[in-house]
């Protein structure tokens, strides 16, 4: 789940730069595509001050109907919960513009309903470090696992002999500077 369009929310996110935030949001979305994960997209009043969903996400998931809600906690919206239940999954991966609201509220609510929830912190932002620390503490106390998109992707891969491994390596290389260096080193040693 992602909140509103990043251009409008960038002014609210202070704990990471917008280039990194966009990269991480799209990296997580690419993980969902790579592993054919069911995706639920939601906005908070797309016609209001929060704005619509990041257009790139609409392009990546054209078959997914975006749930536009007025409720602050996505879990309080019956359409959102129905969409989550329709996936048939008990493990949820969540991200949103503001960790302390867009992620924490539905993650805690879903955990209370018995879901295993991973909150992807680097594909989410916060008003400041204190707000994120408070949200992280609340989520951990509720049983939500805190993670990153790279960790989620690595957990999905599990084994470098999987058929998807070359795509995974390319994805890591595209989205992280360090993995591009790893691949360059590997390719150079393989050519010898």
From TrEMBL:
Record domain Isochorismatase-like: where: 14-149
Domain of life according to the entry: Archaea
Pfam families reported for this sequence: Isochorismatase
InterPro entries xref list: Hydrolase_YcaC-like, Isochorismatase-like_dom, Isochorismatase-like_sf
Record keywords: Plasmid
Name the UniProt record assigns to this protein: Nicotinamidase
Species this protein is from: Haloferax mediterranei (strain ATCC 33500 / DSM 1411 / JCM 8866 / NBRC 14739 / NCIMB 2177 / R-4) (Halobacterium mediterranei)
Lineage, broadest ranks: Archaea, Methanobacteriati, Methanobacteriota, Stenosarchaea group, Halobacteria
